[in-house]
Amino acid sequence: MAERLTTAAAATLRASATAAAPSARRAARASSRAFFPNSSASAARARVGLRAAPPSRLPQRAMAVRCAAVGAAVSDAAQLKASREDIRELLRTTYCHPILVRLGWHDAGTYDKNIEEWPQRGGANGSLRFDVELKHGANAGLVNALKLIQPIKDKYPSITYADLFQLASATAIEEAGGPKIPMKYGRVDVTGPEQCPPEGKLPDAGPSSPADHLREVFYRMGLDDKDIVVLSGAHTLGRSRPERSGWGKPETKYTKNGPGAPGGQSWTAEWLKFDNSYFTEIKEKRDQDLLVLPTDAALFEDPGFKVYAEKYAADQDAFFKDYAEAHAKLSNLGAKFNPPQGFSLDD
Question: Which domain of life is it from (predicted)?
């Protein structure tokens, strides 16, 4: 799903977490298959002032081992609610909204509606914390997101990774000016890397038939055309870097000065602000400094998608309403809840 809902319809944004560049071949694979084709964010350099625990400097494999050892069986509601304040502080100090959206989407976006068994069906189960899944091409750089929020997990051990990933994603949208997401929590974590989904579940940025590809991926998750288009609107956040994804310019007038690590090409001028400008910019195509991927362009070219894209370009309130519903739906895909009905942090 790159710092933004994958380029696919969804492509994250990473405004402040930077990934070590993979090899050229892996980099191209890495960001072309993801909700947000590898956006940028300088996580590795970010200093986060969480009182309880310093940011982890563990290598990726060691971190995955540690994550497996400290997973919680079920989330404590009080700890999860308290962790939301730490996430807000993290966002204020590192501008990492895009990469946290991407983290939540990529954990959930592996869901297959045709498989009933948990966790074989994939989805929001915290499996993305394991090294084997972090190494999937579409997840390039997401180890930086894990490093950013691991201190929060250390501070609040009685919460699950599955809930933490989805809480961070929803909070990032809300703190960027987006709608309140009607989230529920209580997701159960998988317990080991053998429960991770196979590679290849996430969308590509430049398939030969963009509209057909988007439908193939999102229909597998049980989502529809409206979900595809509205979730793509999260591309209003974040940037894509050509050295990682093969897409975009090295820098533009909107990205050359950051915030976070400078450079990359954004979909919108204010790429840390959540609004409907993604749709208006694609429709008007008047600024060559803004990115339009094949899967973005398809939203105004395919008749089934266009009706929704036109609606959201004209009506931000309608976009916010439908986006909040679709984001919540995505965050629940494949999850097993304890208690079964889940719980809210806002009751």
Answer: Eukaryota
pTM: 0.83
Structural element, H or E, at residue 240 = strand 239-240
Evaluate whether residue 148 is within a structural domain: yes
- 12 within some domain: no
* Residues with catalytic function: 106
| CATH code of the domain containing 279 | 1.10.420.10
In a domain, 259, yes or no: yes
- Give, in degrees to the nearest 5, the angle at Cα 225 between 222 and 227: 65
Alpha helix ranges (H) inside the chain:
24-32, 60-70, 77-94, 97-108, 131-134, 142-155, 161-175, 210-220, 225-232, 242-245, 277-284, 294-301, 303-314, 316-332
CB atoms within 10 A of CB 3: 40
pLDDT 10s digits, 155-200: 999 999 999 999 999 999 999 999 999 999 999 999 999 999 999 9
> 262 and 285 share a domain?
yes
As a residue count, the chain comes to 347
Residue 256 in contact with residue 26, Cβ under 8 Å? no
- Would you give the DSSP letter of residue 132? H
Contact between 245 and 25 (Cβ < 8 Å): no
Q: Are strands 239-240 and 265-266 parallel, antiparallel or unpaired?
A: antiparallel
Distance CA 90, CA 100 (A): 10
Model pLDDT for residues 57-66, shown as the tens digit of each residue: 444 444 544 5
CA 46 to CA 171: how far, in whole Å? 19
